[in-house]
Structure formats: C-alpha cells, structure tokens
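Hi U.,

Before I forget, here's the chain from the pilot set. I'm dumping it here mostly so it's searchable later in email.
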Amino acid sequence: MVKTGDTSQIVLSGFGMFLSKKSERLIVREGKKAIYEVPLFRLSEVVVASRGITVSSDVIEELCKRGIRLSFLTNSGKPYAMLSSPMLTATVVSRREQLAAMNDDRGRDLAKLFVLGKLKNQERLLRYFGKYLKQQDPARFESVARLAGQIRQLRPAIQQIDGATADAVRETLMGYEGTAGRLYWEGVKIIIGQRTEFLGRTHRGATDAVNALLNYGYGILYAQVWGAVLNAGLEPFAGFLHVDRPGKPSLVLDLVEEFRQPVVDRTVIAHINLGEAVVLKGGLLDEDTRARYAAKILERLESTESVRGKKFQIKSIIQMQARALCAFLRREGPYRPFSFKW
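Structure:
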C-alpha cells in the first residue's frame, strides 16, 4: 500500500487486502489486522491496483457520497473501472458544448494544442536529462540535443495545419505526432544508455523494465486525469485528437498527452538512471516494484510546477487544465497546454 504525503490518495496493491469503514475513517486490513486507517475527509482518491482486494459496499457508498474517486487498475496499470456518483457531475451545458465543438473550430484548435503541448514537453524532457550528459559524455549530449531540436522544428508546421474541424486535421496531426514520437524515444534510448535494455516503446505486452514502468505509471496518471475530466463536468469518451471508439476514453487520452513527460517519463528515466531494482514476473512488475514505483509517481504528482508565475502541485494543475478546457469549450477563455520548466 502506498499513500501521498498528505494522505489524499492511496494506492492498494497486494492480494488479501480488505477495505472497510468505521465511523468517519477508512480502514485497510490484511486478514484480521488493520494495517492503515485514514479519516475520510482527507481522501480524494483510492486506487485498487491489483487483484484479490475486497471493498465493502459501505465503503463504496461513502466514497461516492463524498466525491472520493475509486479507481481500479490491472496488474499492468491499465484502468478498467472508476466509480463516482453521477450527481457530482450533473451538468449538461458543458457537455453539449463539448459535443458541438466536434464540428467546429474549437475541436480543431484543441486537437492541435494537445499535440503542440506534447511535443513541447518531449523536447523539454530530452533537454532536461541531456544537460547531465554535457560534461560526462559530449557525444551523447549532442545526439540528444539534435533530436530535441528536430522535435522543436515540427511545431511551426503543426501550427499552420488548416481545417474546419478536428476530423479534418486529425490524420495530419497524428502523422506529426508519430514523427515526434520516433525522435523522442530514440532520445530516451540514448539517455538510458546501457543501464537496461530498451529497444523502443511497446504499449501492450511489454516484457522489458522500461515499458513495464511506463505502462504502469500511465495507468496511475490516466486515473488522475479521468477524475479531473469528470469533476470538470466533461464527457470522458468524447475527445478531439484521439478518435472515438467504444470503451476508449478519448478526451482523457487527449488531456493525458501534456502530462506524460513531466509526470511518468521523467520518473521512469530517473528510476532507471539511479539503478534502482525493477523486478518482472511473467512480464509484469512484481508487487514490491509496483509499490515503490507508485510511491514515486504519487510523489511527482505532489511536486510543484509553475503556471503563469505561481506554483501549484501537478495534481492540482491537472484539475486546472480540465477546468480551463471546459471554459474554452464554453467560449469563456483560452486554452494553453501545460508545459514544465526544465
């Protein structure tokens, strides 16, 4: 079990755990032994991140009443369920505007902004880790800097893409995103060097440490962003950059793009560069590795970044971005993708 410093989020992983409540407190048990208690008013999210964990109906009811998200992840980190009260997001104006934006300039602009934000953070993360190579390995530094520069050069072309709707520009945008992704992961491979095997990004069926860590970390990030989208009163399954498919939370995937590098990728690369142990069993992270790594992701979500001259925790910035997205769709303000300082 892992919790944030302020106990607002807990991640549960381990067969045989049982969640119950007593009065105003959530209780986590292993067998008959209570291993953790927390006042319910402090919680914002509970993540169940492995099989074999039992949650009482009393806990589910209380969490929903209080607006505390209950998220479920597979052992590989893929979200498969999120429970929340439908009354907490009982707004219709924002969702109507969201659906209408699919057929006008708002959807087009958002699709472009999501890609531009992702590329900017990809470039910045390469430069962030590349600076540590400048003295110790100038050749690797130059290679990483060159790749970061190539990603940067794609952005003006993306800004010039024209089309009336998100559908009209999506294919071109995804082409640029794919080009940037190849450059970015090549840079990550150079940064990691010989510390561990990394042949490139694998989304499903990953059997290497880097991809297993990435996939698990993205699962935790998805749950965070999904909750922010719901809290903002938006429809998670109606996105602009990612195409709509049954069961695919395309708006969540859209908003996740600007947080992959500053939250998950940065944590994974640092984890590997520090030489910390990563144990895989059957292609999945073992329980101890999941717990240690989840703690690092939650720690990163609690760390601060600057937005318009003020410091905020990243998990707060995610919620701020979801609300800014909502305001943009209602034509009440601009939308600026989040980019971290390197």
